[in-house]
């Protein structure tokens, strides 16, 4: 699996830019990271136990802690600080973010929470992989 070569947290745009040694680069919205946190609080303790995250559109990251040489632990400003994001998982979030956004929106709609998503039904999906630049 590729290793990161750059990682930048953009507070204003709420994006994590990450580049990998295979040439891939992604801008991952904090909201996507928060609603797909690999923590038990979000994923549950097994299949079917996932907890739908609501109202995370404006979530920020107040800090990022390294976890060995394989991951980071973002400190979200809503108090969530238990998700450990491995390089593999960040690569997955970046490369599959359009499909993951759609799954999240579908889950919100199924639960009747379109308004809490901060997006109108049918709104454009944010975030496509970037090739160069750092956004911001």
What does this structure look like?
The radius of gyration is 14 Å and the shape is globular. Helices cover 24% and strands 24% of the residues. The two termini are 26 Å apart. It is of the alpha+beta class and 136 residues long. 26% of the residues are buried. It contains four helices and six strands. A three-stranded antiparallel sheet has the order 1-2-3. A three-stranded antiparallel sheet has the order 4-5-6. Residues 115-125 and 127-136 have low confidence and may be disordered. The chain has helices at 30-35, 40-43, 87-95, 97-110; strands at residues 4-10, 15-20, 25-29, 61-67, 71-76, 85-86. It has one domain (4-117): NE0471 N-terminal domain-like (2-Layer Sandwich), CATH 3.30.2020.
């Amino acid at each position: 699996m590729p290793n990161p070569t750059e990682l930048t947290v953009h507070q204003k745009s709420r994006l994590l830019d990450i580049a990998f040694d295979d040439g891939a680069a992604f801008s991952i919205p904090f909201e996507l990271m928060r609603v797909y946190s690999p923590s038990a609080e979000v994923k549950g303790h097994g299949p079917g136990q996932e907890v739908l995250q609501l109202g995370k559109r404006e979530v920020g990251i107040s800090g990022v802690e390294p976890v060995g040489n394989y991951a980071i632990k973002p400190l979200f400003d809503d108090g969530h600080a238990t998700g450990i994001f491995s390089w593999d998982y960040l690569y997955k979030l970046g490369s599959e973010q359009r499909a993951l956004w759609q799954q999240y929106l579908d889950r919100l709609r199924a639960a009747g929470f379109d308004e809490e998503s901060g997006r109108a039904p049918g709104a454009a999906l944010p975030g496509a992989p970037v090739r160069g630049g750092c956004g911001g």
